[in-house]
Amino acid sequence: MLADRWKKLQTYGANLPSAKVYFREDWEVIYFELQGKMFALLSPTVDEKTQLTIKGDPQKNEELRELYSSIKPGYHMNKRHWNSIILQTDELTDEELTQMLLSSYQLVLAKFSKKEQEKIKNNTE
């Protein structure tokens, strides 16, 4: 189940418009990026410590940490803007995790100009 969840998150992220998901050797992590901007990190191995780190709204991040014991402040990240989620949890469904990943992607997408956003959404470079 955990390996399936780990793989599903990578596949979902890679299928978002203009997103790339790859192993980043210098950080030893699976890196999710949109036009050079990071929107998530994933542990490179599957075990009980495997985690997904995603960008989020600071207030929403706090609320999620209070609701779920599997959600912690972002590991090695700005704690206000990033959360890390232990994937071996029954607290969150795969759908909830992919929705959080999508939200992270959308936060990064929103930082681009409207023109760039249209190019990204249409997957044209």
TrEMBL record:
Gene3D superfamilies: 3.90.1150.30. Pfam families: YjbR. This is MmcQ/YjbR family DNA-binding protein. It comes from Enterococcus alcedinis. The lineage of its organism: Bacteria, Bacillati, Bacillota, Bacilli, Lactobacillales.
